[in-house]
TrEMBL record:
It comes from Symmachiella dynata. GO terms for cellular component: efflux pump complex. This is Multidrug resistance protein MdtN. Residues 110-164 form a coiled coil. SUPFAM superfamilies: HlyD-like secretion proteins (SSF111369). Residues 358-382 are annotated as: Disordered. Keywords: Coiled coil. GO terms for molecular function: efflux transmembrane transporter activity.
Length: 382
């Protein structure tokens, strides 16, 4: 047979603007050169496969990364109530103390002397009162002695109170986070000497859809790769730093959550992560492109370098009935498959397949005519 037969493969993908045929890469052997051209064409021609796809425009997930950290359910700065010099420090960071435990003791030498003086004044006024009563018994003198005694007692109580203030105590049972002073250091009234926190519960503020949760609901969050159960305390408007999340979350709001920490598994400052804040590239995909994987997780299929890939996704906010924000392990050149004329599985390889068909025996006239015209081909898809 003088005629030649040559096959090649082509991809036909139907997209928004253009359609190309996509075919699975399946090599086909020629059984015999003895078959006629029509028979070879019929046996080697693949079935048409049409895939509608759309290019993916990716957004960097770091655009939406907003730090969220655990904080103590309550914490205070332990304040020096008076000016003075630190005599001794009774705690160190990490200590767990009961309520009203000594934290810092100031130098109380002067306060102690004033207390002793006030106490002596009370004793003197008591004696004066007895003398006035025994001497004349006059009502005015006794009333004056009583008033002086009462003033002395009040002065003594004030002196005791001032001396007691030289010992700085914790307001509640908790954990010492920081100590800011050392013995011998002079401090002013109102200056913080330590930080005290109640770590039996920790709180955080996280983004949430307003209709998604209400006060009292339970939810799960991730605290530095560790799952934690939390209770929603309240729902309120988001602060300005969370406004970048509004396109991704329907009716954006903030949920204040509380995590029980009686066993001390968590610590203030640990990072909190929620599914609503993406950690993978964000893209807008057609709603029709989303389906369920075998384990029930949402996915889309993409064409990546002529290979079909299943991409597990996390659905975010829906723009309208046709488009939705998702996050997943997309690559820059991925094309999302909207639909296909046959079912595709992850890993299916695709490549162009174009076939040129045998021509009838050429005459000198037909050769000249053929050489003067562009070469024609037929495209087929599997």
């Amino acid at each position: 047979m003088n005629s030649r037969s040559m096959a090649f493969k082509i991809i036909t993908i139907s997209a928004t603007i253009s359609c190309l045929g996509l075919v699975a890469s399946v090599a086909q052997d020629r059984n015999s050169n003895r078959r006629s051209t029509k028979q070879a064409d019929a046996e080697e021609a693949p079935a048409a496969l049409v895939i509608k796809r759309r290019a993916v425009v990716l957004e960097d997930p770091r655009t939406y990364q907003i730090p969220m950290r655990l904080e103590p359910v309550r914490s205070i700065a332990v304040i020096a109530p008076v000016d003075g010099i630190v005599r001794s420090v009774h705690v160190k960071p990490g200590d767990v103390i009961p309520s009203q435990a000594d934290v810092v003791r100031m130098d109380d030498t002067r306060a102690e002397l004033l207390t002793r003086k006030a106490k002596a004044e009370v004793t003197a006024r008591q004696i004066e009162r007895k003398i006035a009563e025994a001497k004349s018994g006059a009502a005015d003198e006794i009333a004056l002695a009583d008033a002086n005694l009462e003033a002395a007692r009040a002065a003594f109580e004030l002196a005791e109170l001032n001396q007691d203030r030289m010992v700085v105590r914790g307001a509640f049972a908790g954990t010492i986070l920081q100590v800011h002073v050392v013995p011998g250091q002079f401090v002013r009234a109102g200056e913080a000497v330590a930080e005290l926190a109640d770590l039996t519960s920790l709180v955080a503020e996280i983004p949430a859809g307003r209709a998604q949760y209400k006060a009292g609901d339970k939810m799960s969050v991730t605290v530095e790769n560790q799952a934690a159960s939390a209770v929603v305390e309240s729902i309120h408007a988001p602060p300005p730093r969370f406004e970048s999340l509004r396109p991704l979350i329907d009716s954006l709001s903030m949920a204040k959550i509380q995590i029980q920490n009686s066993e001390g598994n968590f610590h203030p400052g640990q990072a909190v992560y929620v599914d609503l804040i993406p950690t993978e590239p964000v893209a807008v995909v057609p709603a029709l492109a989303i389906s369920n994987s075998d384990n029930g997780q949402r996915k889309v299929q993409v064409v990546r370098e002529y290979v079909v890939r299943d991409i597990k996704i996390s659905p975010l906010a829906q723009i309208n009935s046709e488009r939705i924000y998702v996050s997943g392990e997309f690559s820059p050149n991925d094309e999302v498959i909207v639909n296909a004329s046959m079912e595709l599985t992850d890993g299916t390889k695709l490549r162009p397949w174009v076939q040129e068909f045998d021509a009838p025996e050429e005459t000198e006239k037909s050769k000249k005519q053929f050489q003067s015209q562009p070469r024609k081909t037929k495209s087929r898809g599997l």
